[in-house]
Write a structure and sequence with these properties.
416 residues; alpha/beta; TIM Barrel; 16 helices
């Protein structure tokens, strides 16, 4: 039975800006329009009761709530306080509660900062780098850039929250990677992370994919980050997970590594779904008809998509199984593997980018290790071209996995 220790709660299903690349609103799924604009008390109470039951049943002692949207700060403060106070009372049940929130930052004010401080809420803000780059895609509903208003929100956060916050960016390969990285650092973030633009085999820009432009962009950022003194180096989760995996660690995230994906999404109407980025695969693609008001987390695997997401680091295409770095990459992010022809029976659309980036990082790590550790661990350099050759040689020896039909069940008319 699957165990979950994190839920992303869509407390608001609408947003105050209109990013062109947003998977919620602008990549082919309009089901948000059928959702309540805000989560209600009944659903919040159902979440509380189910988390309590699930944690006790599975002896889970730490549980994370991530508040998301849309834009979560559209929720009225008094309603937010009632919700978070209820969830916080799980402490009385012996459960350590962790709160996080992802926002575009525009609505941050002193009162919100006081709430963040009181409940120790980790705050992440979305910003795509310098003004000229951010305002290409992160625009309001009139097409105006959001940069200036986000920076105002960050200033309020720094003045009144007085705690660490993170910045999250979507990669724009036309931007200078070093300028983008350094700009996020100058904004005062404690952590930064760049995300690949959400795409799959049905809608990716083939020119970008075929030429490894994302890998080259990330490699420049990695070298800049890795060359900084370790004691002053900013936290960069994506790179840190890769390094951790290269050195034999078990830590995984849902777009990297082969661990279970113990995260669920709960929509404003209470529907329990796999990761929301899967909306890029088609209209109402993530819908499960499994609702927190009528079902439990034990019912999640009744939905095949949720099962595949939970096991996405293990349910890999044959090419991934032939790859020498598959335990690090874990096949990449599940939404990026989709095609209408094969469902999820594909490597990531960014497969070669990930391969080139990870082998580069591995070789930098190997160069930095003392000789005795290299000998003891057996870790060696692996160049991108070597990895491609290994895949080509190994692929014919890989048998068809027993989960292939599940992966391909999402192909259009595959088994009709």
């Amino acid at each position: 039975m699957a165990k979950y220790d994190t839920i992303i709660i869509k407390i608001a299903s609408r947003c105050n800006i209109n990013c062109t690349y947003c998977y919620m609103y602008n990549l082919g799924d309009s089901s948000y329009a059928l959702q309540p604009k805000f989560i209600n008390h009944e659903t919040i109470n159902s979440i509380y009761e189910e988390v309590k039951r699930h944690c006790k049943k599975n002896e889970i002692t730490k549980f994370t709530f991530i508040f998301h949207g849309g834009e979560p700060l559209l929720m009225k403060k008094n309603e937010f306080l009632k919700m978070i106070s209820l969830f916080n009372s799980l402490i009385e049940e012996g459960i350590v509660v962790v709160f996080a929130l992802q926002t575009n930052g525009i609505l941050i004010d002193k009162e919100w900062c006081e709430i963040f401080k009181k409940y120790n809420i980790g705050v992440g803000i979305s910003l795509d780098g310098v003004k000229e780059i951010n305002d290409i895609n992160r625009v309001d509903k009139k097409g105006n850039g959001s940069y200036d208003n986000v920076i105002k929100g960050i200033s309020v956060l720094q003045e009144h929250f007085n705690s660490e916050f993170g910045l999250l960016s979507v990669v724009n390969i036309d931007a200078d990677p070093i300028d983008s990285y350094q700009h996020l650092k100058k904004c005062g973030a404690a952590t930064v992370d760049f995300l690949l633009l959400d795409a799959n085999f049905d809608n990716a820009d083939s020119n970008i994919i075929e030429n490894n432009k994302n890998a080259d962009w990330f490699i420049k950022v990695f070298d800049e980050w890795y060359n900084e003194p370790e004691e002053t180096r900013i936290q960069y989760r994506f790179f840190e997970v890769i390094i951790h995996k290269i050195l034999g660690g078990l830590y995984s995230i849902d777009n990297m590594g082969y661990g279970d994906n113990t995260v669920l999404v709960i929509e404003t109407n209470g529907e329990i779904e796999a990761v929301d980025v899967l909306k890029i695969c088609g209209e109402s693609f993530t819908k499960t008809n499994i609702n927190i008001n009528t079902h439990s987390f034990d019912n999640v695997f009744d939905n095949v998509l949720a099962e595949i997401y939970y096991n996405s680091g293990k349910y890999l295409a044959k090419k991934c199984l032939a790859c020498p770095i598959n335990e690090i990459c874990g096949g990449g992010y599940l939404p990026h593997r989709y095609s209408s022809e094969n469902g999820f029976n594909n490597p990531s659309v960014y497969c070669n980018d990930l391969l080139k980036l990870i082998t580069h990082i591995q070789n930098r790590i190997v160069d930095s290790l003392p000789q005795e550790i290299k000998i003891e661990s057996g870790i060696e350099k692996l160049h991108y071209e070597q990895a491609l050759q290994i895949i080509d040689e190994s692929l014919p020896t890989i048998e068809v996995p027993n989960y292939t039909e599940k992966l391909e069940s999402f192909a259009k008319n595959k088994y009709a």
